[in-house]
Amino acid sequence: MTLSCGGLTLEVLTVGASVRRLVVDDGDGPLDVVLGYADLALYGADEGYLGATVGRFTNRLDRGRCPLDGVTYTVPANDGQNALHGGPDGWHARPWEVLEEGPDRVVLGLTSPDGDQGLPGEVTARVAYELSPAGVAISHTARTTRPTVLGMTNHAYVDLDGEGSGGVLDHTLEVRAGAYTPVRPDLVPTGEVVPVAGTPFDLRTPRRVGDVLAEDDEQLARAGGLDHNLVLDGAGMRTVARVVGASGRWLEVATDRPGLQVYSGAHFDGGVTGLGGTAYAAHAGLALETQGFPDAPNHPGFPSAVVRPGEQFSAHTTWRLGRR
């Protein structure tokens, strides 16, 4: 499906309700600013999750464990001993149904049966993408028949100088977050919430991504760069991050979620070819995943991910694009 509005074009796939292209035409001709697989068969199969909707539970679960109401459920492991983005058969790998389609809006749906990924409750999930002249609005909603845990996000990687242009080391990044959640060597949160002051995660003023990654820091070394949850300032729908490419093209992210996973794409190793024919090397793109906190079911001090019958999981994110 292809949506268009003003100078923006968005291509969405039913596999994983994935964003394959986001093309910006701001006067210099059309430019795709998100990473996408040249091989369609990799959608739902590759562990890079390019552009995918991930769930039921976004990010990592320690050994796949999910304690809920006195019972511990287990999501199958797919990241060492841990579960990542719903495990090996997460929502990124499922065919989604097109429920609504128009020139600038599409809604996709998925029914996840009771026991899916080891978690309780039949879940009815929806993803809506809507274009405006300013950018893209993404809405994730879900309901359940039994108490369960839910966390959905989009896993797009951006390169504002153009997909395959050489990576994001010369991008600048600003995130309105006064704290972050440190990780163990296996990248599962320790349970701490630590101020960013004096750490590489202090992005409250814009910093060049390459300079951040060059810092001598144990947390960065564990992840091969940035792969951490930042604790966002404020609440409700607000602007939380701004990325600017070397070209001056910028992206602002707004969300109503409490966390933002900033991932600098360390896993890219030249083994995946993008739509423009370039093999993606390390840091080929930057993922800004709006989310609840990773491993939240195992940390009572983190924002709860529990959703019960009669409640609705709801998450909203916007990408606003422009050029200096």
UniProtKB/TrEMBL annotation:
Gene3D superfamilies: 2.70.98.10. InterPro entries: Aldose_1-epimerase, Aldose_1/G6P_1-epimerase, Gal_mutarotase_sf_dom, Galactose_mutarotase-like, GH-type_carb-bd. It catalyses: alpha-D-glucose = beta-D-glucose. GO terms for biological process: galactose catabolic process via UDP-galactose, Leloir pathway; glucose metabolic process. Keywords: Carbohydrate metabolism, Isomerase. One of its GO terms (molecular function) is aldose 1-epimerase activity. The active site is at H155, E289. Its EC number is 5.1.3.3. GO terms for cellular component: cytoplasm. Beta-D-galactose binds at N59, R60, H155, A156, Y157, D227. It is an enzyme of class 5 (isomerase). It comes from the Bacteria. Pathway: Carbohydrate metabolism; hexose metabolism. Belongs to the aldose epimerase family. This is Aldose 1-epimerase. It comes from Phycicoccus endophyticus.
